[in-house]
Specification:
Number of helices: 1
Number of domains: 1
Oligomer: single chain
Strand content: under 5%
Distance between the termini: 102 Å
Largest sheet: none
Helix content: over 70%
Low-confidence stretches: none
Radius of gyration: 29 Å
Structural class: mainly alpha
Order of helices and strands: H
Length: 68
């Protein structure tokens, strides 16, 4: 038979485990979101760098085209 104190302890432990589980899930979610954000930033930076190079390469061609 469970005493009421044992039952309360079991309920407290269950609550503690639930809180710990929720905190762990939140931390895991945050880590995944940070990784995604970092990946997106890196990809955007790379894309912007390639875009800048393309614009720089096109500029001399436009300047040379009007000469007749």
């Amino acid at each position: 038979m469970l005493r009421s104190a044992d039952k309360e302890d079991a309920m407290c432990y269950e609550r503690d485990y639930k809180i710990f589980e929720d905190q762990k899930k939140a931390e895991d979610t945050r880590v995944v979101q940070e990784r995604r954000a970092g990946l997106i930033d890196r990809l955007l930076n790379d894309a912007n760098k390639h875009g800048e190079k393309t614009k720089a390469e096109e500029t001399p061609v436009k300047e040379a085209a009007p000469a007749k």
